[in-house]
Structure to design on (887 residues):
């Protein structure tokens, strides 16, 4: 670790600006409106080009389906969107030999609708983006549950049902990869490690606008006839599916590119942009989780991208990568997909645990128990995640002799996962817990993940896996880990950090109603699904045995109430953050985290002088602990950040004052 | 921006988003093949005649190459649909004109007749309970309604037939075809409002892997719904 304390040597150029950033006059600025225009133009050009190229193909004539036209339309539409947003302005200017002026800080709502290099604005953009797509995916889930209210009264036909399943799954999985790293990672990590920005601000902003374009592409699928493969996109169904499959393949390639960029940027930032004194042993545990997550994103996603590209070639230029009868191998897709797909599970699990471990010391007023074990556990999970993917293929043609090996590696990963879990339990042990709103979500995570994790251990065993494969048991398991873990942690993190992000508190009463409804009805929605799964109800099928109707109805009605809890959150969010904001105290939770030690609102470059880190942020209740950092200037000392301090400048605990 | 203006902006955005979502949902969900109502004006205790045909390729629409069922409506016109309303607790006399070719079955189970009145059906007037698909033209399709246990194999038209139907649906009765007849009972009044899915269970999805896909379960083609009315 050798980071200079000066702005210039930290790669920041002259104070007050980020070098090489275009800042045209206000009237000519590209924004979301020009982005949409670019997307429409790109789509039309791509469609015309595809028809020009391929309308004479034998496979296209009379079929009513020109995959070349749709793939080009979607790809150029995404490119047009990025061009219209101004993502390509800088590289194009450099290619043409022009210099671009520095970006200046700007205020107002307009900056949230533009390509901007301020990591705090990108964080907020991500926050709104992931919420919009989370709720969109949730509406699809409601539709599915409505269909399952009755085994004999149908809202959809079988194809429409599986299309909605596919759309729901794909949107949620795409969104969940960025749910924490996008908004909270980009906003908080520079603040937590004492940096003025992410390492590659343009890459960071690009990853967000790619994320949006990828999700917009996947939302075109229903208009193109949908796709019937579920989120896994298995070949050979992939090869023969409707035009909507092109939306899946192009959308996932696009969003995968954003995931690679976002993950890479996060890793580079944490390694290279830590402030002086920010040793690995002082790195906030949330930053450790972002490091592990970013590593997986940057290294696992390219494998998926290659698979998607091969699938696109099969559907457009008639290669046969995944077509067995022509010399290809559909099983190859399953391997490529899950080689990404299982590490992706940890992309979705680790950030949740990062948030939980970060919040626990604040609300228990104790140091984080076994901090190094927790950090090692996160890196251990990230490494082991590459050695377990074949457990998804126990029934798909894997050599039976290999199944014990992958059963073992899958069970092995429960060890570092257990480390992380026990760090939480150890911190809770004999703690004086403050049951404030964010803490409720953290505790819920540990409850939910216990159920999700234990059922995961069962699922890793070949005999159980073979028995319940493809059933609602599996569905309930991964909803308990992803929604019960990641999503609960995300909302806990939002309630915790929103005062830092926006400067406004959320309404606590509405927040608690949101929490209790979400917690209770999440469990009432998904726990019965373990039972119906064990009783033999398959996933992705719109009919089921009439004897399972009661349990399904409990799940469906609970899912409506679960959905209503998010309505309450949205009302609270919009009201308290936009319509009638209530200013937050500078450090409402009395945290020792570096991100809370700055004035409100945050300065454009975060720190006027790079702080020198003196200790880790978890030394609650330790009378001899050093302050977290030396800021070197009065305006950034803890007392000016709203914390009560003792004579040594040490923050005083609420109960100690 | 004042508080009232912010509130107005949020409400306007909400209304716009709600309208967009509603439009998308309605546009996505509603388009379906039409429903033919055999229950309206039905006299209790009298059977309902259901006349269907199976064509090798529909010849029009978004999937012109799909194999498909068609239904004759009460006024005697062929309609491209597979959705019917039928009265509860009623005998349904089904006639299927099968214009598509056949082949041996992968699963001989689907050569048997189940769930019909008397456990039998007729092929061109001759009663049968099972068809041997390994002989002759073989079985082209089935009419199978799993929840009622009804399944009847449809014998295929010979591939050497001189006057095979080669026009867009519906096929004329002068074209080569096989006639399969059978009867089944709709469920009682306790099932009013329930919808029963039916479909062909012989892999018949041309150009899909092993025939398991495409039209095979597509509503309006080789799959459909029967809704029981009071």
């Amino acid at each position: 670790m050798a980071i200079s304390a000066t702005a210039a040597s930290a790669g920041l150029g002259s104070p007050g600006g980020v070098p090489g950033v275009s800042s045209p006059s206000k009237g000519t600025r590209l924004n979301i409106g020009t982005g949409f225009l670019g997307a429409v133009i790109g789509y039309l050009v791509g469609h015309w080009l595809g028809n020009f190229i391929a309308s004479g193909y034998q496979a296209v004539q009379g079929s009513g389906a020109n995959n070349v036209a749709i793939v080009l339309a979607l790809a150029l539409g995404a490119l047009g969107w990025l061009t219209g947003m101004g993502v390509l302005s800088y590289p194009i200017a450099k290619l043409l030999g022009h210099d671009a002026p520095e970006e200046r800080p700007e205020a107002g709502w307009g900056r949230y609708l533009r390509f901007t290099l301020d990591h705090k604005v990108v964080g907020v953009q991500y926050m709104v983006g992931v919420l919009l797509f989370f709720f969109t995916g949730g509406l699809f889930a409601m539709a599915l549950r409505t269909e399952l209210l009755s085994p004999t009264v149908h809202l959809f036909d079988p194809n429409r049902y599986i299309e909605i399943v596919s759309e729901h799954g794909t949107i949620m999985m795409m969104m969940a990869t960025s749910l924490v790293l996008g908004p909270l990672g980009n906003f908080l990590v520079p603040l937590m490690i004492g940096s003025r920005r992410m390492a590659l601000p343009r890459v960071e902003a690009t990853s967000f606008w790619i994320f949006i374009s990828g999700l917009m592409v996947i939302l075109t699928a229903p208009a193109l006839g949908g796709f019937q493969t579920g989120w896994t996109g298995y070949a050979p169904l992939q090869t023969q599916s409707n035009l909507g499959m092109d939306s899946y393949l192009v959308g996932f390639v696009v969003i995968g590119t954003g995931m690679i960029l976002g993950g890479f940027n996060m890793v580079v930032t944490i390694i290279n942009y830590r402030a002086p004194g920010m040793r690995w042993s002082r790195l906030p545990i949330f930053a450790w989780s972002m490091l592990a997550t970013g590593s997986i994103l940057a290294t696992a996603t390219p494998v998926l991208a290659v698979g998607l590209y091969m699938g696109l070639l099969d559907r457009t230029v008639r290669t046969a990568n995944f077509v067995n009868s022509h010399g290809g191998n559909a099983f190859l897709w399953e391997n490529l997909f899950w080689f990404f797909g299982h590490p992706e599970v940890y992309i979705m699990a680790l950030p949740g645990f990062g948030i939980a471990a970060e919040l626990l010391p604040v609300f228990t007023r104790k140091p984080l128990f076994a901090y190094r074990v927790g950090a090692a556990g996160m890196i251990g999970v990230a490494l082991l995640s590459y050695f377990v993917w074949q457990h998804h293929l126990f029934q798909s043609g894997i050599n039976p002799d290999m199944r014990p090996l992958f059963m073992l590696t899958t069970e092995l990963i429960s060890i570092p996962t257990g480390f992380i879990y026990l760090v939480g339990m150890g911190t809770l042990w004999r703690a004086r817990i403050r049951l404030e709103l964010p803490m409720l979500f953290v505790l819920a995570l540990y409850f939910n993940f216990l159920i999700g994790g234990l059922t995961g251990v069962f699922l890793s065993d070949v005999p159980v896996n073979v028995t319940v494969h493809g059933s609602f048991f599996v569905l309930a398991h991964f909803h308990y880990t992803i929604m019960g873990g990641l999503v609960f942690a995300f909302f806990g993190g939002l309630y915790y950090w929103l005062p830092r992000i926006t400067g406004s508190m959320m309404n606590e009463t509405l927040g608690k109603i949101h929490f209790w409804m979400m917690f209770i009805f999440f469990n009432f929605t998904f726990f019965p699904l373990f039972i119906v799964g064990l009783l033999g109800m398959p996933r992705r099928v719109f009919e089921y045995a009439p004897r399972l109707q009661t349990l399904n109805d409990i799940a469906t009605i609970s899912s409506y109430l679960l959905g209503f809890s998010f309505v309450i959150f949205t009302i609270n969010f919009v009201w308290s953050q936009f319509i009638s904001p209530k200013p937050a105290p500078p450090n409402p939770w009395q945290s020792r985290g570096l991100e809370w030690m700055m004035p409100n609102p945050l300065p454009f470059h975060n720190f006027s002088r790079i702080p020198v880190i003196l200790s880790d942020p978890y030394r609650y209740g330790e009378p001899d602990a050093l302050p977290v950092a030396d800021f070197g200037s009065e305006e950034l000392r803890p007392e000016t950040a709203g914390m009560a301090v003792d004579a040594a400048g040490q923050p005083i605990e609420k109960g100690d004052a | 921006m004042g508080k009232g203006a912010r509130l107005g902006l949020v409400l306007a955005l909400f209304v716009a988003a709600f309208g967009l979502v509603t439009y998308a949902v309605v546009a996505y969900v509603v388009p379906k093949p039409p429903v033919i109502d055999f229950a309206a004006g039905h006299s209790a205790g009298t059977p309902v005649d259901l006349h269907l045909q199976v064509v090798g390729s529909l010849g029009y629409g978004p999937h012109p190459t799909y194999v498909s069922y068609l239904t004759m409506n009460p006024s005697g016109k062929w309609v491209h649909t597979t959705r019917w309303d039928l009265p509860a607790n009623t005998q349904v006399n089904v006639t299927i004109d099968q214009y598509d070719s056949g082949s041996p079955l992968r699963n001989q189970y689907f050569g048997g007749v189940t769930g019909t009145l008397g456990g039998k059906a007729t092929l061109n007037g001759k009663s049968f309970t099972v068809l041997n698909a390994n002989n002759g033209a073989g079985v082209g399709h089935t009419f199978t309604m799993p929840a009622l246990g009804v399944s009847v194999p449809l014998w295929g038209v010979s591939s050497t037939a001189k006057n095979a139907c080669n026009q867009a649906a519906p096929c004329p009765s002068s074209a080569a075809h096989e006639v399969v007849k059978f009867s089944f009972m709709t469920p009682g009044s306790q099932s009013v409002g329930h919808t029963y899915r039916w479909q062909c269970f012989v892999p018949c999805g041309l150009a899909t892997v092993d025939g398991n896909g495409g039209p095979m379960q597509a509503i309006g083609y080789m799959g459909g719904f029967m809704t029981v009315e009071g």
Notes: The radius of gyration of chain B is 22 Å. The helical segments of chain B are 3-29.
